[in-house]
Amino acid sequence: MNRKNIQTLPLNRSLTGHCCPGCLDHYWASRVPGGPKEECGVFGVFGHPEAAKLTYFGLYALQHRGQESAGIVAFGKDQVNEYKAMGLVPDIFNERILGELEGSLAVGHVRYSTTGSSVLQNAQPFCVRHAGCTLAVAHNGNLVNALALRNELERHGSIFQTTMDSEVIVHLLAKSARKGLKEAITTVMEQVQGAYSIVMGTEGMLIGFRDPLGFRPLCIGKLNGAYILASETCALDLVQADYVRQVEPGEVVMIDDNGLHSFQAVESKKQANCIFEFIYFARPDSDIFGKNVYMFRKRLGAALTKEVSIDADFAMPFPDSGNYAAVGYAQAAGIPLELAVIRNHYVGRTFIQPSQTMRDFGVRIKLNPVKEMIHGKRVILIEDSIIRGTTSRTRIKTIRDAGAKEITMLVSCPPTRFPCFYGIDFSSKGELIAAKHSIEEIRDFLGLDGLHYLTIESMIEAAGGDGGRFCMACFNGDYPAEVQEYGGKYQLETKTG
After folding, report:
1. Which domains occur in the chain, in start order?
2. Active site residues
3. What is the Cα–Cα distance from 51 to 44, expressed in whole angstroms?
4. Any residues with CB less than 8 A from the CB of 339 and at least 6 apart, and which?
5. Which residue, 224, 229, 237, 218, is CA-closest to 254?
6. What average pLDDT is seen over the chain?
7. pLDDT tens-digit map of 34-46
8. What are the residues whose beta carbons fall under 8 Å from the beta carbon of 440, sequence distance 6 or more?
9. What is the pTM of this model?
10. What are φ and ψ of residue 48, in 5° steps?
């Protein structure tokens, strides 16, 4: 164990001298065309004597949301301790480390990085101490007006030590601290724009809040009197906590010794739940935004049978992303489902690797076809999405090399043609194959005999028909927050109504 990574926050830690400075290239990469975003998982515990251990298991359940770094901050009786490192949760923490993270309140975070930001300094939660109060902030999402807020704060004398969105939130909190914590959070939420689901710890209190559009999930659980905040319900299941409800868009929940108190800090005039959470990111055993992910993906697969009829020997997924849509498709189409590609589960998800070189390498070592099953067969491949096309092209080649007679791919979502500015890892059209090429061109590039994407209309029907509650900007370009370009940079302004 590298014991020096265990940090106890000193009493004289100032607001701007917090413990996890970021890097300038990460800041600009997240705001200019071509700079990818990040997706993370957050977890918090209040009122449990082994809060850090519970947080460890919660982060373990949320590992799919971030595989590069993880951290836990624990609030003990007399001090605040933290531990952060690069790598997977079980590789970072052990019994001795968790034993030093004493306290009944803890906040945790898992993260994946983008190019140029694979460094320990960017790991969260990040901590500050200001006016005798310690804050530990874990953030999932992307603030789209952080640069404008930062410039304004600097003009009024704020000194930034990092380039992360979350430091903007902390400075705004400090600026309004005299109003009290409740009013300070409200003031912050009235100023920041974009996607944020935040779990924040301070002495004697655990706090959670979501942006008024509700882009990212955040739920509340309870375990033997202790409260838990988590990105997904699968984390509650692992620690055997009962699901209470989700944190509503624009809502703030504050948990202390007197229980849970909540208030609506910002009016939620419309919702924009990220539908890509259902399609790709969330674990299938989770409930998010009031719906079960597994069943949602099955409905997407079944919806494909209404749009296309294909004569084939069997359907098969690319594990694990296409598994549940493939089940839905095979059941609805009445054809065999085969698991004819075997996945090495000790390789990270290719979509969120920090470089293209690693992404291609991960594909090559991740999947291995069962040649005896595939040789001479007409195969329907079910995939959840195609982003850049490089992953799918390599995967399809392995099926072709295994002797498939005919390969048709069905994608359980529409073509991804527009960049995401709210926290998903594609922030420019240049990264999206469907933004530059027709479906026929994509089919030829991937080496397929046939290619079909699910339509937006069928996706909405699978979602229960309420398309107005979802953000589908990556498919239709209809951004819940308007995108305007200034000097080569994108600035987003939140819509109302």
Report:
1. 3-272 (3.60.20.10), 295-464 (3.40.50.2020)
2. 40
3. 8
4. 316, 317, 319
5. 229
6. 85
7. 223 357 999 999 9
8. none
9. 0.86
10. -125, 135
